[in-house]
Design goal:
Structural class: mainly alpha
Number of strands: 2
Strand order of the largest sheet: 1-2
Distance between the termini: 95 Å
Number of domains: 2
Number of helices: 3
Oligomer: single chain
Largest sheet: 2 strands, antiparallel
Order of helices and strands: EEHHH
Shape: rod-shaped
Radius of gyration: 31 Å
């Protein structure tokens, strides 16, 4: 039982349980803060604008490569009308 009754009928809580509950509350708050920070970091990592901002040369190279692939992939690309 978590509470005993004193002479006045009031509930008296075990100090160990009170400390344990306080520790649980602190741990829960710390975990919540860490999860929120991790969510922000993940969203920042997968944000395409941020990715391009951090790697502009690679982004241009990938865009060029994708354009070259798509441009050369079309049927009759080299066929000219006369």
């Amino acid at each position: 039982m978590t509470a005993a009754r004193d002479e006045g009928g009031q509930g008296v809580r075990d100090p160990e349980i009170v400390r344990a509950e306080a520790d649980i509350a602190r741990t829960r708050e710390a975990v919540t803060r860490k999860v929120m920070a991790l969510q922000q970091e993940i969203s920042r990592t997968f944000e395409w604008r941020e990715w391009i901002r951090q790697r502009p040369r690679l982004a241009v190279a990938l865009a060029f490569g994708a354009g070259a692939l798509l441009g050369g992939w079309r049927p009759n690309f080299h066929h000219r009308r006369r």
